[in-house]
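Two folds, back to back.
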Amino acid sequence: MFLSSILLQTATATAGAVNSSASEVTTESINIWELATKGGWIMIVLALLSIFVIYLFVERYITLNKALKQDATVFMDRVKDCIHNNDLQGAKNICEANDSPIGRMIGKGLSRLGRPLNDINQAVENVGKMEIAKMESGVSMIATISNLAPSIGFLGTVTGMVKAFFDMAHAGNNIDIQMLSGGIYEAMVTTVGGLIVGLLASFLYSLIVGKINKMVFILESRTMEFMDLLHEPA
């Protein structure tokens, strides 16, 4: 009876210790901020790149959204009415008042009236190309960062692994699994950071390219509409 009581108390104490350890393990969590800071200077570079990408995206998105919101149909209808009424100066004034890529393109075409239609078309297309180049300003940098960020993260992983093995080589017989695992997971943080920044940049780049393609389609359709207007018989 006495022996059974001792065994029961021992089992209870052991179970309590196991439950306590399990509780400590389950409650342990990874602090993302602390983990990121262990990535070293590579994480600072990735953070700066992510801020730069977001800045470029917001700036381009606002500019393109502003251009897309302008009603090109109403603008072209007003220009058509002026041309049909032989009010060339009125059409030019409408284009000058419309501060948009379409307004500048049509305005250039109106300023070339009297010349051959091919010259007018070429002048309008040249302005369109310049407007597209303005819209694409900085967009290529987003694409570059989307490709560069994962490589930078991998560089941080390689340098981190070199450091981890260097510490192991100088630890002598004091090497333990905690030293190895700690060095590895700290090195892998930069790879995760690089992939996150790369995916973010790639996603934002796709959104901006979609906006630009939509604007290019509008410019091309309005150019054709303007040239068809000039081809109409007097």
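---
second:
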Amino acid sequence: MKIALVLGTRPEIIKLAPIINKLGKKNSDVIFTGQHYDYEMSLQFFNQLKIRKPDHSLQISRSEPAIQIGEMLTKLPAIFNQIKPDTVLVQGDTNTVLAASMAALKCGIPISHVEAGLRSFDWRMPEEHNRIITDHISELLFAPTLVSKKNLLSEKVHGKIFVTGNTVIDAINIFADMSAQKAKLEIDFTDFVLLTLHRAENVDDKKTLTSIINAVIESGQNFVFPLHPRTKQKLKLYGLYEKFVKSKNIKLIKPVGYFEMLELMKRCLFIVTDSGGIQEESTSPKINKKVVVVRKSTDRPEAVKAGFSRITGLSYSKILTAIKEAARNPTLPRKTSPYGKGNTSEQIIKLIHKNI
């Protein structure tokens, strides 16, 4: 059995690390597209998580999504034809996932989709397009929860569906205990809120981004904000960057590695974010933090139902109210994560061997 794992972004590296580390080099090939904004930084993630270096790297251009996908569609078939995998395994909903799945389909290779069935029902999200297409052309669909399985059943996908949990919990179980020793952080604030923003529907929209920024500043909470390059670019474009720089309650820091992010999540009072992955990670017993989700909708409703996350909408007043309410009572009782116990990667490998 030969499995080709195709990945291109930091979240994919993190979530596929437990699977890669359980597969030997003899029966798997790691293909890295380089979709991430910083190719070298992504390779550092491989080193941090002790994953072997990619067997194949595409290093695609920093261009618009359609061109990136086109480049991957052009380059991936040659690699697939060379290594002749029994299945192409992808994770999530990135442009890499869409391109790898389409290339595998046209090469006659079964697709195995990790984190299948997530739905925001928000067509503004590019990720929604990618995940729906991928789910409908996959042979094996590894749904993290029953909610995800129900989404797939309602759409009548043709592939086999398995509820497995999410590999992000596997990763935290492996790496959270070592993050304090591995992380390189210099944070002056003691009681702080972690802030992350990167989604296109938020940072590319001036009105939305202004609402979020104003609410964060006016909340009066101390924030640590690892600033994504895309977000920084938009803040400067819209004349909002100086507001952050001048504010006394926000510490801007450069993008951080995985261990640093784990430490920030562990140390903070609570989290304000538009990240889907952080909504999942926060439910791990090793993190266990409240999350204020600055979005109109979420593809992780399980975290909301379990009491970890709250969706604010995108108005200034609602975001500000949610932040203040979380600040008044930031402590979260110990809860069971809806995304599994940390054995998802083992289940997925066994199911691939049994069904491909």
